[in-house]
Design brief:
Blueprint: H1 16-32, H2 57-70
């Protein structure tokens, strides 16, 4: 499992394209070695789309089904953990 916080020193810190290249590289490498993506308290809202790097569409679909079973009204942690679509 990988959890990351990016610190880019100096002038590069002002260049959003640095993070735009670094983050996908780390997620793709993690996926390649069959790792998983996490955040401080689960995936939350900021990284829920990153779940696709470590779980396939079938696993994400199953997660949506379990969520629907236990939370049919979608009131428990809406928009967190699972991507909006499969």
């Amino acid at each position: 499992s990988t959890q990351s916080t990016w610190v880019v020193p100096g002038e590069r810190a002002k260049q959003p394209e640095v993070l735009a290249q670094l983050e996908p590289f780390v997620y793709e490498w993690t996926s390649k070695v069959r790792g998983s993506i996490s955040a401080e308290h689960g995936l939350g809202q900021m990284k829920n789309e990153k779940l696709r790097y470590s779980k396939d569409a079938g696993a994400i679909s199953m997660m949506h089904q379990v969520k629907q079973l236990f939370d049919p009204n979608g009131i428990l942690n809406p928009y967190k953990v699972l991507p909006a679509s499969i």
